[in-house]
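task queued by scheduler; priority normal; single chain, no ligands, no partner chains; default sampling; output format set to C-alpha cells
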Amino acid sequence: MGLANPLFTYADEKVSGDYPSLVSSLKIDDSLKFCNEEVPVKIQEIRERFEKELLLSLWDRPQVILWLKRSHRYLPHIEKMLEENGLPDDLKYIAVAESALRPHAGSRKGAIGFWQFTRATARKYGLVVDKYVDERRNIFASTAAAIRYLKQLHQDFGSWTLAAAAYNMGEGGLMAEIMEQGTNNYYKLYLPLETQRYLFRIHSVKLIFSDPETYGFSMTKKDAYPPLSFEQAQVVCSQETPIRILAQAAKTHFKTIKDLNPELRGHYLAKGEHTILVPRGSSKGFQKRYANLEKKYAATREEKIYIVKEGDNLSVIADRFGVPLAALIIWNRLDLQRPIHPGDRLIINRATFKP
C-alpha cells in the first residue's frame, strides 16, 4: 500500500509508513480545471505531462510540507486580495509554484520574491526597487503588482491559462509563438520547455493543496506556521536612519523588523515617509519613542570622513582605524564588486573609531 520509508505525520506526532504510493497518487479526476478552464487530461500526452509534474512534486515531500506550513502564513492575504479584485482563487497557486512562498526566493534570471518579478517588470507594475527597498519581497505590494500584471495578461490573451503561460515566458514571446504556430491553445503550443511544464506544475500544486490528506500530508492548523501578526506604523525620517532605531522604537530587535518587512534592504531607511510593519502591540506610543530616538541619534552622531589614498584597500583602512571590515561596508553602503578609488570619501563611525 505504501512506500517503505517513514514520514512524520504532524497531526498526531506519530511515525507512519502508510502514506499513499506514488502510483496510486496518479489516479486523478478527468475534470481537472484551472481558473474554471478545462485541463484536457483525457488526452494521453497531456496526462503524461501532468503526471510527471505531480510525481516530481510528491517526490519532494519535505518541500510540500513546507508549502503547506507556509500557506497559512501567506495565502489568506493573497486569497483576500484576489477576491477583492475579482480574480480567480486558483491564481494563488502561481505564487507557490514560483517561490514556494519565500520572500527572498531568487532565480538565475534575477527574478525575486513571492511572485518572482524581474526588476524591469516589477517597476512597470508599480513596485519600488532601489538600494533601500525591494518591494518584490513584500507580500502585499508584490501581490498587488501580480494582480495588475495578470489582469493585463488576461485582457491580452483572453484566458487565464495563457495569462499564466505569458507570466512565465513573457507576453511578447508567447504572442509570437501563437502567431507563428497558428493556435492559441496552450496545450497544443510548442513552447520553451520550462513554460510547457509551468501550468502542470501549478496544476500539481492545486491538486495537492485541494486534498493534502489524499497524498499523505495529514496536518492540522496547529502544525502550520503562525499567520502574520503585525501592526502598521508611520515613520518620517528626517535623514537616512538606521533600522535599529526603528527596532528600538518598536521595542523589538533589528531582525524582527527585517523579518516583518523583508523588502527593506541593508541597514538603513531612506530619508522620507514610510509605512512599516511592527510587532502587534508596539504601535502605541511608537511615534513618540521614534521621535526621541531619532533626535538622540542625530545629536550624538559623530563621524570621521577619511579620504582614500593611493594604495589603500578596505581591509587596510579597517585595520588602520581598528574597526571590522564588515562595519566599514555597512556604514558606507559599499559593494565589494566595486573597488574604491583614491579620493573616495569613507565614513568612520566615531562611536567605534579608535584614533
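post-processing summary
- Residues 23-88+141-223 form one domain.
- The chain is about 45% helix and 10% strand.
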